[in-house]
Amino acid sequence: MLSPQAIEKIDYELTKYPADQRQAAVMSALRIVQTERGWLSNESISEVAQYLGMPEIAAMEVATFYNMYDLSPVGKYKITVCTNISCMLRDSDVIVDHLKSKLGVGFNEVTPDGKFCLKEGECMGCCGGAPLLHVNNTQMHEFLTTEKVDAILEELK
Amino acid sequence: MATKKAKLTIKAPVMTDLKGQTLLCLRTLTEENPAALETYIKIGGYSALKRIVTEKVKATDIITEVKNSGLRGRGGAGFPTGLKWSFMPRYFDGTKYLVCNTDEGEPGTFKDRDIIRYNPHQLIEGMAIAAYTLGARVGYNYIHGEIWQDFETFEAALHEAKAAGYLGENILGTNFSFDLYAVHGYGAYICGEETALIESIEGKKGQPRFKPPFPASYGVFGKPTNVNNTESYTSIPWILENGGQAFADLGVLNSGGTKLFSVSGHVEKPGNYEVKMGTPFNELLALAGGVWKGRKLKAVIPGGPSTPVMTAEAIMAATMDYDGLSKARSSLGAGSMIVMDETTCMVKALHRLSYFFYEESCGQCTPCREGTGWVYRVIDRIVNGKGKMEDLDLLTDISNNIAGRTICALGEAAATPVLSFIKHFRPEFEYYIQHGKSMVESQKC
To answer: Euclidean distance between the first and final Cα of chain B, in Å?
Structure first.
């Protein structure tokens, strides 16, 4: 069951579209449910589809198409590091190696305590601040150094 | 979220030096609190909208002014904005839509982000003027998913503008009404393509539509829709305050106005620089502090990876405008300059770019879906020391067979770096294949 808080937020998104176009809010609705539950299970996706009155397969298509939806558990903090060209030119591989050794996981793995998951991201459109990462799809950290990464991880503990 | 009306207190950034820039789209950057409504009003913002709606300026007059300005689509295609506006049907029984494309995901592109976080009201005013001109009742600004904090800034600005009477029902007491909403992507480069973006607004996978029909006749929810880039809309208020000719005069022939250049990679001060069209490349490079660490320039991708890479020699002689870069056999694109110094291995750079296009192909057209993966695997084997000399012809052949055989331009975009990297830096690729290691990195040791 969708929580009353999630429903309130989804209803706000629905105000942006014509009344007969509820499906348009599916991107936001999936984001809202993922933020609340940590990731999107098949059940979560069907609850969203039912609430919006759209076929479950159509909601599933959206959830599997866009990179920022997580279809398996990602731990408490999902750290996504951009490795695309502008970040690569400014040594994002140093940041990635540091994160891997510090957390003891590779890309797409979750730490045994369920706290961190490391992901490789595609361009986030903030290349002026390269190298960079974001946490849980929301907090962007730019101009990274290994010291800065340590400080971010410390804060998340 | 539903009741949130955050106050906009965004501090002006310290990262880029404003000296030497001609601030038009980012003109609030000189102020203490650039994103706030009162800041924008203080510098004369919303005056063009006010004049237009209260004096009931004719739509055709506005379109003429925009045509005179020489403004061309800032998202990369460079299509004349005024001409695009004239494609929208004047009379339509139903809702017409206005869409802004803030879905920057092409590597090296980050200019629209600074508009929505530092000068959101100028974009809102530009969209309101466009809506008035084109008779659009509802608008959406589709914002790249990864820049969540900036999405919230823009949404707060929308609330501010609505509360002040610049959006919503009966704008400034007239009979003009326009509702504008912020919507977001969630990680798909392809949604920067306008019809994929429209599909995404409708709550679908972002797969591009066949054109025609074009969005002007069949867009959001099947209704006439005008889609422009963020920077294009943001230029509109200035054009109507100062006249189209004044805007055209800022630039050069065929490239009116100023342009935001996103400079990333090997420079001392990466960031956005707004300069007049036609600015020589070396001046722009100097604004960005020059090549970092005192190194030599090797190559520049001038407009994002979908534009051909240029050698240092070629770009140093070029001016930054549509004609200037097409004469130099590249393209202005979205003005996303990726600067590479002498230590850059071009094989590895292309390896990363080819992975990007493989990852981001939407999978709809076979040449792109299969071709981008094939290209990536061939470059990957070169990087892993298993390349064959005939691979270079194979890469060229695959790329030529992707380009022009797909529904959208992602096919061309994926082919361009492969063809241009091999063309300009072939000896580096040959060295890598022969020795199983990078030429540049071998020289370093």
So the answer is: 55
Tally Cβ neighbours within 10 Å of residue A23: 20
**Structural domain boundaries enclosing A30:** 4-65
Q: What is the pLDDT of residues B338-375, one digit of tens each?
A: 999 999 999 999 999 999 999 999 999 999 999 999 99
Q: What would the two tokens of residue B441 be?
A: 């990195």
Same domain, yes or no, for A100 and A127?
Answer: yes
CB atoms B186 and A68 under 8 Å: yes
A108 touches chain B (CB under 8 A): no
Q: Which residue of B has its CA nearest to A7?
A: B2
Which CATH number characterizes residue A122's domain? 3.40.30.10
Tell whether A72 is covered by a domain: no
Query: Which residue in B203, B301, B356 is closest to A122 by CB distance?
Result: B356
ipTM of this predicted structure:
0.97
In a domain, A44, yes or no: yes
Reported pTM: 0.96
CA distance B442 to B251: 44
Q: Are residues A10 and A36 in the same domain?
A: yes
Residue in B closest to A63 by C-alpha: B205
Give A 29-68 residues with CB within 8 A of chain B.
Answer: 30-31, 52, 54, 58, 61-62, 65-68
Model confidence over B260-309: pLDDT tens digits? 999 999 999 999 999 999 999 999 999 999 999 999 999 999 999 999 99
Residue type, B24: L
Same domain, A53 and A102: no
